[in-house]
Each structure stands twice: as C-alpha cells, then as structure tokens.
Amino acid sequence: MRTADLFDTEDPQRAALAAGAVLLRGFALPVAQGLHAALHAILAQAPLRHMCTRGGFRMSVAMSNCGEWGWVSDRTGYRYTGLDPQTRHPWPGLPACFAELAQHAAAAAGYAGFEPNACLINRYAPGARLTLHQDRNESDLAHPIVSVSLGLPAVFQFGGTSRAQRTQRIPLRHGDVAVWGGASRLAYHGVLPLKDGAHPLTGPCRLNLTLRRACG
Ligand code: MD3
Ligand code: FE
To answer: pTM here?
Structure first.
C-alpha cells in the first residue's frame, strides 16, 4: 500500500478549531505503532530531558528533537540548534514516516507542499503541563505547525493572539493530528496537567510531536 493510502484525506472526523486550524481526529492511528518505534530509536540517540526556562524553572514536560533543527531552552533563553547540546551530536534525522504524516495532514488541512525540517518531541508524565504560550521562534510564520498526539489523552487550551483572550478547551486523544496555520499560527495555547493513566502503546505518558519548518 502506498503511504498516501494510509491517510483518509476525505475523513469527516475533521473539525475547524479556528481560522487556519484544523483537527484531524485519529489521522495518525494507521501509523501510530510505526511512529512509536521510530521514536524509541530517536530517544536512544537524543534522550528526553527536562530543559530550563530563562527564568530558571525546570519544565515539567521532558523534551528531545529530531530533524535538522531542534528547539532548546536554557538560562540564556530558547532557540533552534543544529546540535544537541547534551550529546554535541546532530539531532537524529527526521524519519520518513514523520515527514510523510506531516505532509499529508498539512495537505488535508489546505497547506500543500509542507516540508518539515524540525520535530520537537514532548513527553508528558502525569502532572506535566505546558503553560499558555505562543510559538513565534520560527523564522517563517507562513508555514503551519503539525502536531501529533500519542498515548494518554490531554486537555489542550487554545486562545487568541493576546494572552488575555478567553481560551477553549479541546481534548486531544491518541492518534489525533492538528494543523496550525494562517491566523491560528500565533494563537496562545497550552496543555493542562496530564491525568494519571496507562495507554497500551505508550504506558503512563502522553507523547506529542510538533513538526515545523524552522530556520528557513
Ligand atoms: C497552536 N505543544 O510544543 S501541540 C509546543 O501538546 C506545544 O505538546 C503542545 O505547544 C503539546 O509548542 C501542543 C499543539 C500546538 C502546537 C503548536 C501550536 C498548537 C499550536 C502553534 C500555534 C498555535
Ligand atoms: Fe506551542
């Protein structure tokens, strides 16, 4: 079967979240096991770690990266780097199954020709959360961000382009893919503290992939 045939681009399980943002429920289910196996290999090369914010706070979400560029944060702030500061090696390559999923999801959401070169891997253990923030560190904001949820469900918070605007709460489940482009690209968003649980594929955690075009 061709990779393209794995993804149902006519799926009615799609919801417009906001201008430019599309949620594709279950879009990654056909490839979830393959993604998880590839993740395992990546994390053996570039281990998950708790980064620090510029303010010196340890992030509750554990992170790593694959692709040409990786997102890192420390006491000097956050940025994209070509080398993993912990191993001093390049980040592991972006697996074809990650890139193909992101391309197909972006196309299904109306963003043809998306070629990600960075993937941030977020691991949430019970209690881990991501406070409300904007993603504005990528040089070209015309490219969408594709996010893939695996494992335990989470409640995603999604607001407007100012922090004060009210937020909606959206449950994100195993296999869901969301595409964030256009007017939603600079929307404030976050993840509420993860609830306890066990998932057959990931065990007691949630894994989230965000695929981006960073540094051109
Ligand atoms: C909306 N990750 O890594 S994915 C992040 O579930 C991040 O780990 C969350 O926010 C997670 O920066 C949320 C959904 C997401 C990702 C990027 C966005 C939503 C977005 C960028 C702009 C608007
Ligand atoms: Fe974000």
So the answer is: 0.94
